Amino acid sequence: MKYVIIGGVAGGATAAARLRRIDEQAEIILLEKGKYISYANCGLPYYIGGVIADREKLLVQTPASFGKRFRIDVRVENEVIAIDPEKKTLTIRKADGKEYEETYDKLLLSPGANPVKPPLEGIDSEGIFTLRNVEDTDRIKAYITDKQVKRAVVVGAGFIGLEMAENLHHAGVTVSVVEMGNQVMAPIDFSMAAPIHRHLIEKGVSLYLEEGVTRFQRTEEGITVFLKSGKTIPADMVLLSIGVRPATALAQQAGLELGETGGIRVDEHLETSVKDIYAVGDAIEYPHPLTGKPWLNYLANPANRQGRIVADNMALGNTTSYEGAIGTSIAKVFDMTVASTGLAAKRLKQWGMEYQSSVTHSASHAGYYPDALPLTLKLTFHPKTGKLYGAQCIGYEGVDKRIDQIAGLIKHGGTVYDLMETEHTYAPPFSSAKDPIAIAGYVASNIISGAMPVISWRELAEKKDEVMLIDTRTPEEFSFGTIPGAVNIPLDEMRDRLSEIPADKPVVLFCAVGLRGYLAQRILIGRGYRNTANLIGGYKTYSTAVAPIPAPTASSPAQPAASAPSQSAQSGSAKEPLRVNACGLQCPGPIMQVKKAMDSIAPGERVEIVATDAGFARDASAWCATTGNKLIEKKGRKRTLHGIA
Ligand SMILES: Cc1cc2nc3c(=O)[nH]c(=O)nc-3n(C[C@H](O)[C@H](O)[C@H](O)COP(=O)(O)OP(=O)(O)OC[C@H]3O[C@@H](n4cnc5c(N)ncnc54)[C@H](O)[C@@H]3O)c2cc1C
User: How confident is the model at residue 643, as a pLDDT?
Assistant: First the structure.
């Protein structure tokens, strides 16, 4: 049997190695148009940023080592330019331009996807790049060094765009990100993306949302990026990460059927519409297990899994079905981690599927153990059966394990009740006895049972004037900011102040994250109130989602939160500052600690506070401005923010 594989990276290399393991006698040819095979494309941004220092580490296998170990005829710089399915032949062009024919018995296409490059004026100018492979990486890295790049514009805020923003920043480049949508990371919901917007800005990235690039102009000083709003951004280089499209030109030429989303159509055995031609990876579309609709999923894990399955089917005769991928992804965005699986609320809405969602704010591990960090988890599920549709998680630590557990459940048809039953490892440094995913399950089950009717931040923003809005937090928390129109009835005063709450009006309750709102709601429900709702995710979700994103001025990008000690940092009292540890406390906890500490010291003395709450830097600046205190210095140290007031 003679197997030929087109594309030598994730799907192609996996299939080739598996084919050899199954059939020692077969002839296997791996054709790759680039110079490299089996490289770590997911690691490319980190090499550009200098986080991965050694280029060789990206090259998991060389053509020679792979060919020798698996006895595979690896031909790099061999591009397949035509397939003749009738004659079962390929036309291949070598690097020197010479063409030749090759035959096959069974053929696999794993050609990946191509970066989108819209036909904008100036897009082919020097210094404008896309990132897909090692060659692109080498070009970008050399350009940054040779041209001493200081300013970069990243167009498109998907995961590659944001990973590149972080890595360019890491390499000492000032970064602007331009995104056409109203949020970064399109697969997740807006309220989950909102904290990432803040984080990017705090890190010094200039974020242009709802902005399109209209053209580029190469100048003597670099490149000018023109935006739809009329703004311009001067840059030394531009990275286009607007998205990718399945590489289907070859498949189309060969007469293979494409599906409705534009990917190569395959059956459950990953065989295309033409017998003996299979396809995997970014180039195919496949039904989403939750919607049944075909979709494109550009991720490495499905490509690798499909590579293994397809090899079995090619060698053993369509024995294994592919179950499909629900879309489970993760990205590091500076200090934050964002991950998601399954269907976000906006996708469910798009598909017209009935759903409910919950948002819970927990900590990465037991709050009393040092360095617990905030973690927010959003679930989407069927409002009656509790069948899980999706989950999104943002935080600093432990985001991956939560999403991985939930992804496993969703793939096996799990419900929110399964989250409560999940048995997990626990010791204070790692988790809590009630893990964030169990808490999310409890909250979701309360919503389904009717024990906790809820309202989303978006619904509340629309209906604020029609409801009695009660802030159940303490007067002190209330004083640091609330939702306009809210009345402060702290949870512990609720039973004594029922006369202030009309029984004939919808009542919306909220607290910091949702727990006290729920407890207050149970009091009202127990006293006969019929129309109550608890704000999903509490004030934390609401205030982050509705907060406007400060528009950067093109000429003065935001400055990083981390800054060198200013002159004034050394000024002030000679007395050692009062040190306060507010790690693990959620907003406004750290600010309340600042206030308490400031109240206890004499004028001219200083407080140094360490906090992990993501909004602390911003809150501290605002609090100092309104109270007449002086913010001497802000320092971002990996996952903590130190403020000295
Ligand atoms: C910068 C970057 C970062 C990423 N990070 C992540 C991540 O963190 N997590 C994640 O899950 N996914 C990530 N991905 C996506 C992931 O790499 C892809 O989903 C995966 O590689 C797809 O595998 P594939 O085999 O379909 O295509 P690829 O791995 O892209 O391989 C396709 C190969 O086919 C070759 N080829 C195409 N046409 C021909 C032809 N006619 N003849 C010969 N050869 C041809 C191409 O040169 C290419 O080398 C990232 C991708 C990039 C570019």
Answer: 53
